[in-house]
Each structure stands twice: as C-alpha cells, then as structure tokens.
Amino acid sequence: MPPGFRFISGYLNRAAQETLAAAIGEVIERAPLYTPRMPRSGKPLSVRMTNCGALGWSSDVAGYRYQRTHPETGGPWSPMPAILLETWRMLAAYPHPPEACLVNFYAPTARMGLHQDRDEQDFAAPVLSLSLGDGCLFRLGGLSRKDPTRSFRLASGDALVLGGEARLAFHGVERIFPGSSTLLPGGGRINLTLRRVSLP
Ligand code: SIN
Ligand code: FE2
C-alpha cells in the first residue's frame, strides 16, 4: 500500500454506524440526493450525491467544483454531523477541520470509475472515507492511471485515509455487494469522504 494510506477495518462499531446513518438521513432530508453528471458529456453518474459541511463537491456538464449551495435546491448544505468532525480529529492527523463531506449513495448496481480526488487546494490534508451499509469492492491504484491496482472489500464501519503519498492515488468502486449489511433499511451503500478544500 502507498505510504500515507491507512485502512482501519471496523473503525465505527454498530452503534456508531447507526448514529451516523441517522445523522446522514437528516443531511439528506435537508439537502436531497441528486444525480450528478459528467463534465462535457453530461452523462449521469450511477451514484447519487449530496454533501454536508460549508462546501459541497458537485459535477455537471461545466465541470467539477466546490460550491456553497445545493445545485438543484439552491439551499445551503447541511452542517457536518458532530460524529464526522470527531472522526476527522481522531484519524486525519491534520490541525484544521474538514470543510466538505461528500455523501455518495450507491444503489446495488452503482459503481465509480477510477479517479483522483484533486479538486482541492490543500493536498497536505488527507481525504478521510467512511463506509456505511452494503459492502463494496474498492480499487486502489497509484499516482498514474496506468499504475497497477489492487482491489479489496470495504464493509460498513470501515475507514480509509488517503494521506501523504497516497493523497492523489487513483481509486474507485468496482461493485456493491447487495444485501451484505442490515444497517440501511432500504439497502445500498453510503460512502462519506471528508476533505479540506482551501489552504488554511
Ligand atoms: C469516492 O471516491 O468519491 C468514493 C469512494 C467510495 O465510495 O468508497
Ligand atoms: Fe474519490
């Protein structure tokens, strides 16, 4: 694994997963999941998204950006739940708080192609990822799209840290394992990625 990459299996216990899933339910009530579109082609992504925190990542025909408002409702994003700020303090090893948390919802057939997280100004801060609900096959590569990749399973409660040399590592989600968790009543997988966007 590249230096700066950490996989903390089972970081959140079941009670913490339930607390977080309930908090994300409120986030989604205030700032509903929407279907983002690929830059240029306008092709819909299979993942539905929303955000919490001051800034939210979004994608449409014009490109990728961070913005302060929901692209469909025009309203502000929900505040970041306390349990996410606490997790950042525990795992990020970074002195400034996260500004954005992207909420990805994967229905059973959704996936995410190999990409880098590089729309932030501050690459000194790690990207912190938490998984809830159904498991997935996660793919991690190197700093070049052509580098070899390895795939491993992520389960509900697992945390990943992409920091240091791994901050710009290519990654993606190959598939969801439907029915592999009882956490979310309707099934599916939620992934949360916390990011610091601007330079402190
Ligand atoms: C992402 O890279 O935005 C999501 C990764 C994941 O769903 O685990
Ligand atoms: Fe990503």
> In which order are the strands of the major sheet placed?
1-10-7-12-5-2
Computed structural class:
alpha+beta
* Overall spatial form: globular
First-residue to last-residue Cα separation: 28 Å
The unreliable regions are none
- SSE order, one letter for each helix or strand: EHEEEHEEEEEEEE
Largest sheet: 6 strands, antiparallel
Q: Please count the beta strands (DSSP E, at least 2 residues each).
A: 12
What ions, cofactors and ligands are bound? succinic acid, fe (ii) ion
Average residue-wise pLDDT:
97
Q: What's the alpha carbon Rg, rounded to whole Å?
A: 15 Å
Share of residues in strands: 25-35%
Q: Give the proportion of residues in helices.
A: 10-25%
User: Oligomeric form of this entry?
Assistant: single chain
The number of helical runs is 2
Characterization of this structure:
It is a single chain. The chain has 200 residues and is an alpha+beta fold. 14% of the residues lie in helices and 33% in strands. It is built from 2 helices and 12 strands. The strands form 3 sheets. Strands 1-10-7-12-5-2 form a 6-stranded antiparallel beta sheet, with helices on one face. A 4-stranded antiparallel beta sheet has the order 6-11-8-9, with no helix packed on it. The longest helix has 17 residues, at 14-30. The two termini are 28 Å apart. The model has no long low-confidence stretch (mean pLDDT 97). Bound molecules: succinic acid and fe (ii) ion (FE2). Fe (ii) ion binds at residues 115, 117, 171.
